[in-house]
Amino acid sequence: MEIREINVKEKQIINEVVQIHLDTFKGFFLTFMGKGFLKCLYKSYCQHKESGVLVAFNDKEPVGFLAYSCDYSGLYKFMIKHKLIPFAWYSLGAFIRKPKVFIRLMRAFLKSNDVKREEKYVELASIGVDPKKTSSGIGTALINELKKMVDFKIYNYILLETDAENNEVANRFYLKNGFKLARTYKTKEGRKMNEYKYLGEYN
């Protein structure tokens, strides 16, 4: 298995990342937003200089991905400045299907201040593995690659959030991979979330 960071010109691979996302996160908000929205999102990760998308390949076929950002607040500002019109266009269909989406979307785009912290950290924003390839170590390999990339002399920790309820497999997965539960909280929509941190081997 090969893992590498992709660039925005690799359109077909970005399309396959989007498909893995759709297959992995059925019923989730971002999946509801549709393929065009997700494609714009992952292209933004590739274009933002402090963010990126790692992809795991098996015989040149993408089988998993991990999106991260070393400046999550800056990524949101980048998307607002450079991608607002495309995001609005791709959101139109979802808005027609479910008008309440607009409020959730505005909260997401105004999140740049919420994710800003005094200490420097790396956000593990999204990780997905082809459902046909689960339990084969792909997710762990992607996380290990991110751990190797992060200089813990500069960044205090790797941060991620996941659902606290009805999500036992994911929560066990992060604990198994060295993440520690930092807190549990509720979103404005009432969704209970777990926040995990990985502090590095020597912290």
Any overview of this molecule?
By secondary structure, the protein is of the alpha+beta class. 43% of the residues lie in helices and 25% in strands. It is built from 7 helices and 7 strands, in the order βαααββααβαβαββ. The protein has helices spanning 11-24, 29-33, 35-47, 72-97, 101-109, 138-149, 168-176; strands at 2-5, 51-58, 61-69, 121-129, 157-163, 180-186, 192-198. A 7-stranded mixed β-sheet has the order 1-2-3-4-5-7-6, sandwiched between helices. A hairpin with a 2-residue loop joins β2 and β3. α1 packs across α3 (35-47) and α3 (35-47) packs antiparallel against α4 (72-97). The longest helix is centred in the middle third of the chain and has 26 residues, at 72-97. The protein is globular. It starts with a strand and ends in a 5-residue tail after the last strand. The model has no long low-confidence stretch (mean pLDDT 89).
